[in-house]
Input
Amino acid sequence: MLPGEDRAARRVLLVCLAAGATTLLDQAVLNIAVPSMRHSLGAGAADVQWIVAGYSLAFGLALVPGGSLGDLHGRKRLFLAGMAVFLLAGVAAATGGGPGTVIGARLVQGAAAGLVNSQVIGTIQDVFHGVDRGRALGLYAVTAGVAAALGPPLGGALVAGLGPGTGWRYCLLLSTPCAVVTLTIAARWLPPPRRTAHDSRLDILGLGLACACTLTLMVPFIRTPDSGGAALLWAAGVCALACAFVAHQRVRVRRGRVPLVHPALASSRPYMLGTAVAMAQFGSSIAASLVLTVFLQDGLGLSALLTAAISLPSAIAMGVSSALAWRLVRRIGLRTVSVGLMLGVCAVLAGAVAALFVPSAALPVVLAATQLLSGAAGGLAVSPNQTQVLQHAPAEAAGVGGGILQMAQRIAAAVCLSAVSAVYLHSASGSGPRTAYALASCVCAGLLAAALVLARLRRVAVSPRSPRPEFPTVRSPRDDRSPQER
Output
């Protein structure tokens, strides 16, 4: 059931869910078309990494300035403008004749998606309050997760039905009708623009330092350093940029200016730890999905349709477990996130073992089973974690708080996509695709294990009085909102 009893609020939530599904489906659907796209465009490994990771990078870097602009100038016009650019850039990417055109269009499309999603989070924070806000954020997380899980099966069906030469182009066009519908209902149903903040000075330098640090972190995964000296220079550059970013944030706070990371967010240990959990989990799941697709098609020679069938159990399991996660939360609280992450580690490691030892004839069935477990694990981890994290975002930084969370996830996705795919491609050329997939899966399992440790630290940091996250359920007849919230 949609949260809230007001019809206008339900319509606003439908717009937000449509936007989240459209922008997240667009990236997930492309993963399964990567092998055919690479052959069709004659793209190199670095080109492919930029096509898949550049979208996430631009998405993440646009979230915080988008959230700030929405807090300052209202969200509706920015939402509509971002969705229109997203639509046009998607068409440009689908009709691109070379890797450079597709990379450029995907970067623009990612930035537009970031602008849209920052308005989505801020709008939910503005419209819903109390228990209704927790339920709305939970539904948004569930919708986004299911859309991401449905991407590979849909992409596989398109590539199989239309052929590898043009199927990947229709994968990029799949979001076009969704964007048109979202634009239409957003123009009618989103509330009028309203300012929620008063400081108009964006932290441009902080955003630039974050971008430079992320790009520098991605460099060795796209191009291997030629020598040990180059690797040391790269490490020193990453550390220097990270230190410069932290110092700049502190200077802005001392001068009374709003930094890129809002002071109330930076001082909230549960918020920062929960964001770190989301980074590790999201980066691992996105990278694991891409590597599985490449392994099945290039390594085992399976068709796109069979690859989609192997991925489909993950989408189904994630939808079911996300819908039921609130029941487990009410029994064991935030430990639900840890349970989901632990199941995720087991699923990824089971896939690695299967790749090494299971015969080729039975391997697709076994991998489909691991995908079923992986999807169930994701549904238990994603929605509870995101809902709890966003409960610590102050009202005056609603857009920025949601933007920081998604920016962190998208930056993690960009780095993990580059790193894990580089591990797979490098190992496949020497040790074979099975060993390469097992090694890449172990990297993803390591990320989930790190998220498990962070989740434990977050549970310790949350005081007993902190509210538990609420999830979609049937409302009781009694309205539990305060008069002010009504």
Summary: The mean pLDDT is 83. The domain at 7-192+258-461 is CATH 1.20.1250.20 (Growth Hormone; Chain: A;). The CA atoms of residues 210 and 453 lie 25 Å apart. The chain has two domains: 7-192+258-461, 213-220+228-257.
